[in-house]
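User: For my dataset I need records formatted as: sequence, then structure tokens, nothing else. Please produce one.
Assistant:
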Amino acid sequence: MPVNIFRAFTHEAKYYYKYLFALKMAIFSILALGTYLFDAYFFMINAIKGQDPGRFEGLLSTIVILFFYIQFCIPIRQKILLTIYFLILWILHVVGHIGYLIAFIYLENKYGIIVFGFWILGSTLYMMILIYYRVIRGQYHNIQIRNKHFFHFISQLEIILAIYIPTFGLSEVQTISRSSVAFFLLFDFFTGDYDRFHGLLIKFILHLFVGTVTASVALEFVFISVRLHGYEHASIIADVVSFYLFFLFILLQFHDNNFKREKPRHGLGNGPPIGTSYTTTLGRIVPRPAYTRATREVKTSEE
């Protein structure tokens, strides 16, 4: 009897833990876009008034925008709730882009207008991909993000922050919100699953993503050193290309054929490994397919 009570309590604890994890991901994503809106419209207001926005403009959203990009794996099962969540993030992201777009239209900067036009298009495509796979098709994500990854991202952000503060602190350099830091952390995270990837396409896209992100960061620091705007423009273009490669990679990871099949484990069936999307869903608990009759017999014999 005490054993059954303990098991029931553990089951309920895991159930509510998934809600808390989903809530944390949602809050972090919305806060990240809130900082992006602040940076974008702060830049726009100063551009219209002809004022110098000062130093560190765009730094806050550059640091935390990472949490917007990991929305693809939020553990929510309810389709209506998931659709609302994706749409809210898309609206906030696009509204931020529009702020920068208005600023560059006022400054008559054709380069900035084109760049943020592509950002709006990319954000829309990313939202459509997520709704199609997560809501319409009910696909689960093969790449998982857990609590330990949150702490890893934050620890890495502290190191990168120490590098970027001097860059954004230069008063003679006009800076905007960038996604290169987020992409740098994400490709480091994606490569942790490299051994699971199957097929040439997903590996090729990941290599391109890593290359463009590295080029974006390198060109940005070259611009800081030599003050030639050609390097700055090339860095921002690489940033936009990285975003398109990112959501193409996310699209591919929804397809099971791009991942190697897990080898059957003796006595545990042929289910997915512990920690897959089967155990990170919001709503009803989906039992692991590996929990079969053979598993129960093994556990009973052990007890």
